[in-house]
Write a structure and sequence with these properties.
The chain has 393 residues and is an alpha/beta fold. It is 17% helix and 37% strand. It folds into two domains: 4-127, Immunoglobulins (Immunoglobulin-like, Sandwich); 130-383, Metallo-dependent phosphatases (Purple Acid Phosphatase, chain A, domain 2, 4-Layer Sandwich). The chain binds zinc ion (ZN). Zinc ion (ZN) is lined by residues 171, 210-212, 268, 302, 325.
Length: 393
Amino acid sequence: MIGLRIKIVRHAIPVVPSRWLACASFAAVACIAVSVCTADDRQTVTGVVADAEGLGLADLTVSVFPAEPAAPTNQPLATTSSDAQGRFTISLPTETPLLVELQGDRGRGRVRVTPDELGQPLELVYPVRTTVVLLHDNDMHFNFNHREAFAAKLEQVRSEHEHVFLLNAGDIFVRVPERWNDPRPEYYAQQSRQMVDIMNSFGYDLMTLGNHELDYIEDLTIAALQRARFPLLSANVQITTDLLPQPKPFHVLHTSHGLSIAVLGLSIAYNREGVQRLDPIDQARKYLYLREQHPLLVGLTHLGFRTDNQLAETLGTFDVIIGGHSHTMVNPAVTVNGVLIAQAAGTGSGSPAHPDRPKYLGKVTVVLENDQVVEKSGQVFTFTAPVQTAGEG
Ligand SMILES: [Zn+2]
């Protein structure tokens, strides 16, 4: 592995051949210099790789990708090779920001070039080491408690890591009226809306539907779920009623520098009118192709810990399975057949919601080098009620 540091400079001024001299001045620090020139609706990206230690200058593959976070970035806009002096030129339709990727026989690195970074040196460590953090919770059952402590932890993790996603593995609601604090449907309507609104406010990225969402109540469940500003997943339920939204089988998340993460949803559901449950392992098998298209495949499941283990034993293609339903505290996360399995306990459902119940947050950390997973681990944080001091009720 080589620890080469590469500097990429994007010049605001159109590039003329003489500017190669300016680029060459970076040779002392072992860099590629990249310039971007826009004219006639075409954008020309020119650059030179200089003094790349251990890396030949010729025949490096240089690719340019669009960098919109929502856009698939596995297809380059254009690709070329460096010449014997390490020079390259790519012309493409105007499209900013850009990701510029350099690939040699020692792996590849990418850097994001945005308009507001004009002229500023950007560093690219080659090969690129990326840490993806998947925060997750499950089975809250109307108990989204200790929100201040949760928010503080969320802010801390988001400030410590660049690529953080927040996922929910189902059962945010309580289906059973006997377990409500108030037996009237208005209670369910208010609580379910509130759960989704809180999740929106914290910026959840995805949720897999749990049986307490799929075992819906009239139009109250869909009214709450439709407020979600994040996709709802499940690859193994088919909805034939308009009282529930049809979940997506999977969703692809993108980091700001173009790494893609495919997340497949799988749920326990009890067959009822309008909801058909298909075998989760059979359905999951149909989506394993996602692992060929994306460096990370995550199962976001509401199946229970035992089924998550079966899923991992049967289909070792998953990098990570984040689960729910069985309320299992998996701390630290375990590895089965090469698959990291995580779950962050669960709160309530057997009895009415109560603000003193703990709130759990799982944190799965995946480290990739040149888009290959090299490390993965998981832990669970617990937030509890403040300790009552003597004299307080
Ligand atoms: Zn459940």
